[in-house]
Every structure is written in structure tokens, then in C-alpha cells.
Design brief:
Pfam families: FlgO. By secondary structure, the chain is of the alpha/beta class. Helix content is 26%, strand content 24%. A hairpin with a 3-residue loop joins strand 6 and strand 7. Helix 3 packs across helix 4. The longest helix has 16 residues.
Amino acid sequence: MMRGLICLVPLILAACSNLSFCGASHCQTIDPEPVTLPEPTPWYRVPATAEQSEPASYQMPYWAQSQKRLQHYADQLAYQLAQADAVKGQRLAISSFVELDETLSQSTPLGNQLSELLRTLLPQHGVTVVEHKLTSRLWVGPHGDFALSRDARLLAKQLEMDAILTGTLVTTERGMEIQARVVQLDTQSISSSATGFIPHLVLNQIRP
């Protein structure tokens, strides 16, 4: 008898699922609907003029990836900057690259990542780089050990440097133009400069 009841249970459940008035729990949807997450808002968007310049039938595939990374273009800048004899033997600080506008104070993920990459790449080309975000002590905490900060009150009091590397970003129809220069603090003269260009395909892969 028990065996017969067990065999009938699947049939009862199947029939119940077809009834519009069935409110039993086993008649509800067991698998939840897939959650659709919103697409992340990119920090960089292709200018409208660039979009219009492409043929109407052209659509860049979502999976399109550049074979070159941002480091490749940063290394080209580092190589150009290191060629000047004036920067050899000097202590160089590096600022974030900013958009070329009336304020010259708006940076982007590209501007910040370029400066971070140049801090690593320029010493490989023989340029001495000083870390201006270094604090005067090592902060040990439960989430890690930290030596860098953006809080001016925690930074080292004395920072000896001879020049500052700065740069600007200009958006064009094909990508981003980079203008970098090393400025001497004592004379405010430019001792080294470099230019670069990063296409849209690379810029679209940069995340904040």
C-alpha cells in the first residue's frame, strides 16, 4: 500500500501544477528568476563625434580586446622622458595626469593609473622617483600594513625633490592624447617631455 502511495505522489504533484487555483507551496516556482545586475557605468565614453565617424553598419563587439595594455603606452612615455640628460640624477615626484580644461584639477582613472605606472617604470629607465604619499611611519592594522596615505597630516614632513612630472589628457575622436613633462622646481623650466596616444579600445578596458 505504501509503495502505491509513493508512486502516486509525482502524478498528484504534476496534476496540481497545471491547476490555476493551486496555491500549495510545491506549486510555486522553485527556481528563482535570474538576477540581472546593471551594467557598470564606465568612466570613459567614446566621444559622440567618434561614434558618428564610424559606418552605420559598424558595431564594436562587446568582447573586443586590445592586444596592448595601458602599461605598454606608459612604458613608451617613460622611455621618452628618461632620454633627457637633465633628469638623470634628479629626484622626481609624479603627480596625477589631469584633463586639459580651465581648472587643470580634474583627474580620471586613466590619469591616476598613468602616474602609478610611471612610478614603477621610470626607475627601470634609471630615473630616481620619490614617493610623496609616503607617511612618516608604518601603520599596522587588522586589515594590513600601510605606509601610503593621501592625508597631508600623515605624510612625511620633509620631501626632497628636484622636479615634478605632470601631464594633461586630451580626448580626441580616436582616443586620448597624453602630454607629459618634467618641470624643474627651482627654475620652473621643462627639462624633459613626452607625448603619447591611447586608442579607444584600450581606454574602454580601464576600470576605476
